[in-house]
Amino acid sequence: MTAVIATNETILVVGGGISGMTAALEAAETGKQVVLVEQRPYLGGRVTQLYKYFPKLCFPTCGLEINQRRTKQNPNLTILTLAEVTGLTGSAGAYTATITLAPRYVNERCTACGDCATAVEAEFADEYNYGLSKRKGAYLPYRMAHPARYVLDPAIIGTADAEKAKAACKYDAIDLEMREETLELRCGAVIWATGWQPYDAAKIQPYGYDRFPNVITSVEFERLADVNGPTGGKIVRPSDGKEAKKIAFIQCAGSRDRNHLLHCSRICCMASLKQATYVLDAFAEQAEVNVYYIDLRSIDRFEDFYNKVRANQNIKFIKSKPSSIVADKDGNPIVHGVDTEGYNRYAEPHDLVVLAVGMEPAVKKDAFPISVQINREGFIEAAPENGGIFAAGCAADALDVNRSAQHATGAALRAIQVINRVARAEV
Amino acid sequence: MGDISKNYRLNFLKEVEANVEEGEWVKMCMQCGVCSGSCPLGKFWDHPPQEIFMMIRAGKRDAVLTSNAMWMCTSCYNCIVRCPRELPITHIMHGLAHYAQRLGLAPAHQPTAKFAQLFWNNLMKKGRVNELKLGVKLYFMNGIGEGFKTSLKMKDIGLGMMKTKRMNPMEAIGGHALEDVKGFHAVMQKAQELEDQRLANQRP
Q1: What was the ipTM of the complex prediction?
Q2: Which of A24, A251, B52, B204 has the fewest C-beta atoms under 10 angstroms from its C-beta?
């Protein structure tokens, strides 16, 4: 049975992505008691699935490693993975949260040796790679997962694979008797950091994401470019494994569109410019990148990055929101549209099309366990009615990693203020 | 050098907003181009919708109102469905065409305009569309020679329609009508009066 000690002076952080981790650490490092709840089996969220950051093109592993070390060193922080907040009642200074813990079937004795993964046979779509590869039924979610502990897929429980995994484990770390648990804990303030999810590209019907294998999303492309990704960092197209040298990036795929997402997702312009550098790096002179855009929003210091990428001869910017994509007999996606600078009709074949999909809030408007103010885009508003609940990062708005971390730090400060009020009242 | 600020006076945009059905939406266009690319007849237009909207804002009054562009719209609604800002593009196109016609600026011998007028005249007679007469008028729209040629070409279809009772030859004499044709004409006359009044009271 999982035991968590929490009081009205505890801060509950919902979501262990970059925002939740930041908020939890900032609060815990001031001496506050923090419980961090994460739905996935590991911390880091979508940042773990990025290959490089913009604009410096450095690797997210670096910052994640620093945050992981901070969590290990901090005695004020309790981390619950595979956990979901299913209920929340009360008001600022006195909340009660109901948390449901899914069984991992692997206890803390796990050394991440990998013998269980070798022993099992069944394979599943790897969610870490957005289904672009397979993983075993016993698996480490990704290579620097924290906690560094394997997970059994619930689908293998009750099959021969589960017994094989148990038999292969030299450390008695596999516990097939684990069951879902529910626990209740008290807290004074809640930081809501449930983040974002990529907009469902299949809903943008004319682009044929659900019909053409060589039309993929920006988050999938990020996995393709990653040396630890499904292709070992080779930029190849899904239909036939051919090198994708001529790539179209289509901006505002879902964003700024009243048929889809009302808001500008803010990250996609920079993300596509960054991803263009992956193509230019991989194929040098043979690379051909076309960026189709309504307008490019690389603000402040990001403009330097835009100018640097733009200077490359092998990248073209076409001011046009494409109207449709069709595939030719060889599976090459052909992008159709009319450009705004000259009103020229084009039908441009590519090896691969990357849809720069928008960000939508991961938690739907009606799915919050307690009443909070939600704006028309679906994000949490900073409102006095929210009491002791503060949104951090992409639960509050479409933000990049840098701004998410800043926003999360602000949310931590708000939560700390509530806890300090509670502490003064209790003295 | 002249007064450069003249170029930035949105006189024509304001005129469109005041006079064209759904014209107040024109300023909402963000020039993404989805409408133009989505138009199945787009390549036959002088100017795709996106360009028309920009020309309105740029004050190109004559070029817009004498253009054949908005007459090419077939109301397929692809543009409306896809427009990220939900502009009622199809309706604006018809609104522009109607406004150009009212001002007498529509291109001469524009077939869509001609047909629209034939349809209207046909409908106004009896309050019902007489398809036989409308069809014959359409065939002979461009002269007797072409009319006979088209009629011969279509004769099998015509006979087939008669056989399956989809077309009644008796419609050629008189034809079916509303019960109260007089009342219908009175309604239309009143509507015309109201419209004329509205136009007379409008700011220039």
Answers
A1: 0.87
A2: B204
